[in-house]
Amino acid sequence: MNDILGKNKIILDGAMGTRLFAAGLKNGECPERWILSDVSNRAAVEQVQTGYARAGSDVLYTPTFGANRAALSKYSLEENVRDYNLSLAAVTVAVAREHGICAAGDMSSTGLFMQPMGDASFDDIKSIYREQAEYLLEAGVDMFAIETGLSLDETRAAVLAVRELSDKPIIATFTLEKAGRTMSGNTPEALVTVLWSLGVEIAGFNCSQGPCEMKESFRSLAGRLPEGVRLAAKPNAGLPHCGADGETVFDMTCDDFAREMRELVLLGASAVGGCCGTDDSFIRLLAEDKTEPHPVYSDASHFASDGRTVFDVDLSMSVGDPMVCGEQLIDGIMSDCSDILNVRLESPDSAMYLAQAAMYINRPLMLEGDFASLSEALKLYSGRAVLSGSSSLTEDERQKLIKSFNPVIM
Asked: Running DSSP on this structure, what letter comes out for residue 321?
């Protein structure tokens, strides 16, 4: 695996979902159950992944996209979480071992909305991902792929769940809307910065866009890419449209796809593959292409983020008086005119007020408090905060927070 991760350009795999539909999966069916319901369906997955391996993929994703408890509950299959993850991942692990490449445990959205917009707490969602990650590790995956992220909140929960169990590499990718943001309003720069701060090795984008539409997101990262994180591009085979029989069609040719992907590589993408509508012919051309990525890195130690925007923090910025993290926090944020918001936590429980106020935070956020309170706040805050030097922390506690969340240090 170290040999693969050390490559200047990593070749990911191609689509699985659209390949399953071509093999007989029907709309509305649970893909995980369909694969395991018949030996021929399982063989179809093995055939698809063998094709990718032979085409040059360095990483194969397990067919466990929706195999978390929340997603399976839509089909009343939540009690099959362990069996589905073990059985499905086993197919990919076997193919990967045969070809000397990596198997990535695939995880995607739970379909739940996190508080305050929904009913699920951060810990609820983290627990769902932790369960799936446990079983994928048991199945023998080499790394994790957290893909098609719709919100930074949920993807952070998945990353932290994995990190509680393993230090295996993580690929985390988001799906972007036409405006170049997630449906939750996160910009590419904020997504990559926050994932980098959590120790994610490869971050980027997949699905929803073709390679042409994805270019602007990569351009926005020029000179703003934190050193130590690699960029991933796994777009669709162009934009979808409706076929003659009402089916979804992706009609970008593999040659056109490869040509456009070459530009993404030049913009810094060093882990490339395909999503909906792609097959092994697309991956083969990506593997054969000799274009080398030249990402432009930046010192991101001073990058703070509210999850939507990235801010350059420096000592000339004014820091507000500490405001208590409590019921009046939103009012305090709205009336504060400083460059950096300063919030003091008086207990771990008070961190919930920070989560509720997140949408009102539009500046760098400095946090102070004891270790337990800061740990909870940094877990819940969907950005990259600034750690106050006035917090009563031992050096050991400070280093633990830096290791887990990598906040800006002032």
From this structure: P
Tell me if 171 sits within 8 A of 271, measured CB to CB: yes
Contacts with 250 (C-beta within 8 Å, 6 or more apart), sequence order: 18, 236, 237, 238, 239, 240, 276, 277, 278
Contacts of 329 (CB under 8 A, 6+ apart): 323, 343, 353, 354, 356, 357
Instruction: Please indicate, yes or no, whether the overall pTM of this predicted structure exceeds 0.85.
Output: yes
CB-CB contact of 326 with 353 (8 Å):
yes
For the chain, which residues score pLDDT lower than 50?
Answer: none
Tell me the chain's radius of gyration from C-alpha atoms. 21
Strands 303-305 and 310-312, by their bridges, are antiparallel
- Alpha-helix runs per DSSP H in 152-279: 152-165, 188-197, 211-219, 254-266
Mean pLDDT of the chain: 94
254-266 and 211-219 helices cross at what angle (nearest 10)? 0
Could you give the dihedral angle defined by the CA atoms of residues 132, 134, 140 and 141, in that order, rounded to the nearest 10 degrees? 50
What are the tens digits of pLDDT across the range 63-121? 999 999 999 999 999 999 999 999 999 999 999 999 999 999 999 999 999 888 888 99
